[in-house]
Specification:
It is elongated and about 60 Å long. The protein contains nine helices and no strands.
């Protein structure tokens, strides 16, 4: 790859990264092209060298934002070697995750938009849901029961984070995170307890 092609690819990647972070923070409708290009250190005029339209950029950045969560979820599951699901729960429902939506899970930010979005966005969202379900079910035995439990866990994680970010009362926000985390971990310890 020549220098100009490498520089162009790096510029394109920078715009995608900036946009992915901004849509996790603000959703799909807020970031304007001029602001995104400026934040990426590029001119507005160079936009069409990289993308056919704002929709093209947003669709690609949303897919990137969703995909970036996979590595974070895998790392979260490895934070507690003895109980990987506990590590995942604690990491996902942490106040740090709540307070940093720009680097957080895009399932939270993009759920409603994906529900109303085009087929490409729905498919990207679905891929990430399936990836997370596979990861969480794989922390157990991967059975149908483990997959059902993964669906419950993922729904609770995403829902609790969404509500914790949306409510005005900081105490309620904290309570949503801690209560859901505690209940999910109780389910896990109850499910893994040997039968009498």
């Amino acid at each position: 790859m020549g220098h100009s092609q490498a520089a162009r690819a790096a510029s394109r990647e920078r715009v995608l990264q900036v946009t992915a972070r901004r849509i996790r923070e603000e959703g799909l409708t807020r970031p304007g092209v001029a602001d995104l290009m400026k934040e990426a250190g590029l001119t507005h005029g160079g936009f069409y060298k990289h993308f056919t339209s704002r929709d093209d950029l947003i669709t690609q950045a949303a897919a990137l934002a969703l995909e970036e969560g996979s590595a974070k979820m895998e790392r979260a599951a490895r934070t507690n070697e003895q109980a990987p699901r506990t590590g995942l729960i604690d990491s996902y429902l942490a106040k740090q995750h709540r307070d940093a939506p720009g680097t957080g899970c895009a399932l939270v930010t993009l759920g409603a938009a994906a529900g109303r979005g085009d087929q490409g966005l729905k498919e990207a969202y679905e891929r990430q849901v399936r990836t997370y379900l596979d990861l969480i079910a794989g922390l157990d035995d991967g059975s149908e029961e483990a997959r059902a439990e993964a669906m419950l866990n993922l729904s609770a994680l995403v829902g609790a984070m969404l509500m914790a970010r949306a409510v005005a009362d900081p105490a309620l926000s904290d309570q949503l995170l801690t209560t859901v985390a505690d209940r999910l971990k109780q389910r896990q310890s109850h499910d893994s307890a040997p039968a009498a």
